[in-house]
Amino acid sequence: MTAVDTHFQVDLERLRRAAEQAEPKLLDGKRISQALLEQVCEATELLGERGIVPQLNVVRVGNDPASAIYVRHKIRACENVGIGSSHIHLPPQITQRDLLAKLERLNGDDAVNGILLQLPLSEHHNPNEAIAAIDPQKDVDGFHPGNLGFLMAGHAELEPCTPRGIMTMFRAAGVDFKGKRAVVIGRSMIVGRPMAQMLVRAHATVTICHRYTEELAEHVRNADIIVVATGVPGLIKGEWIKPGAVIADVGMNRSEDGKLCGDVEFDAARERAALITPVPKGVGPMTVATLMENTIRATCAHHNLAIRGGEVYEDVDALCGPLDQ
Ligand SMILES: NC(=O)C1=CN([C@@H]2O[C@H](COP(=O)(O)OP(=O)(O)OC[C@H]3O[C@@H](n4cnc5c(N)ncnc54)[C@H](OP(=O)(O)O)[C@@H]3O)[C@@H](O)[C@H]2O)C=CC1
Ligand SMILES: Nc1nc(=O)c2c([nH]1)NC[C@@H]1CN(c3ccc(C(=O)N[C@@H](CCC(=O)O)C(=O)O)cc3)C=[N+]21
Predict the structure, then answer these.
(1) Which pTM does this prediction carry?
(2) pLDDT tens string 37-48
(3) What is the 235 CA–ligand 1 centroid distance (Å)?
(4) Across-strand partners of 86?
(5) ipTM reported for the complex, 2 dp
(6) Which protein residue has the closest C-alpha to ligand 1 atom 30?
(7) DSSP class of residue 78?
(8) Nearest bound ligand to CA 69?
């Protein structure tokens, strides 16, 4: 599918069939993620035949309640697909130095294929330094500066899960990127910026908006593809949506009654859009499934294997074709 699929190639056709089952206008992340996880499961079975069990290690610092929920989702996903997991929960007051030492230990542990440092950390930590301390080959979040650099260069092995999951969902739904106007609202390192890179690589014309963007509504009105990741509920109004636009809503906002909602006025936007992700059951499950996909990729790379079309290949270099988009 893309240049980054050297070690594990997902069958897009199967994801397409899942996308087709969705309700009208719905970009059904839950359904597409299940089709992706099925393929991850098959990959763990193939690896299991060779005595290899992929292993993901999640490191969580402090007691952020949302982080606790997300980590639980990730560990449960590992259990469901046959990936081994462990969860290291560190106290909020752990020093930066001790945190780095923990990460170093995981880097050196040959049984660990993926390391995920759940964000946010505590106030006194330096997250960039901590992320940079993770072995880039185990960086299943794709946040290491080396991996982000490879992403910009067009050939990262491990890419950030949320934007990659959104691209997978778009591709499963047959979204056309070439020459289309894409607007990304939010410029974080974990979502907005890598998202914009992936869209531009797919030949969209990309605008990145943020807090200081003037006339946000005008940018959105012109967009064929809209990705919103701000954490501001209802920021994007339904009436701004160009008829036929495709929308991925990354926002995860919890209202007082405990309900989740995104950054887009869902009902009004759905009226006009061609496709829109719901919250929940949209981008979130794709993020988790892509984390599983990345863990397989890191494991295969570690063992110099490739999994494609239900087969395991040992001579990976011979498989690497020319870079595509
Ligand atoms: N479903 C999933 O899998 C995931 C969901 N999330 C959710 O997505 C949301 C964003 O996450 P993340 O990227 O980490 O968040 P950050 O807080 O790191 O970034 C938010 C971005 O939104 C921009 N922004 C904030 N307010 C406005 C505004 N009024 N107008 C325009 N832009 C604005 C900020 O601009 P500026 O840079 O100028 O401050 C910033 O770039 C959160 O709700 C988070 O919980 C995140 C990751 C995964
Ligand atoms: N190192 C790191 N990597 C991350 O990938 C990372 C992170 N830190 N910090 C926080 C954000 C947020 N994030 C989500 C993952 C899954 C759902 C998810 O599964 N959402 C469900 C609902 C969850 C619920 O019930 O609360 C859904 O949308 O259907 C949401 C958000 C990953 N993040």
Answers:
(1) 0.97
(2) 999 999 999 999
(3) 11
(4) 57
(5) 0.98
(6) 211
(7) H
(8) 2
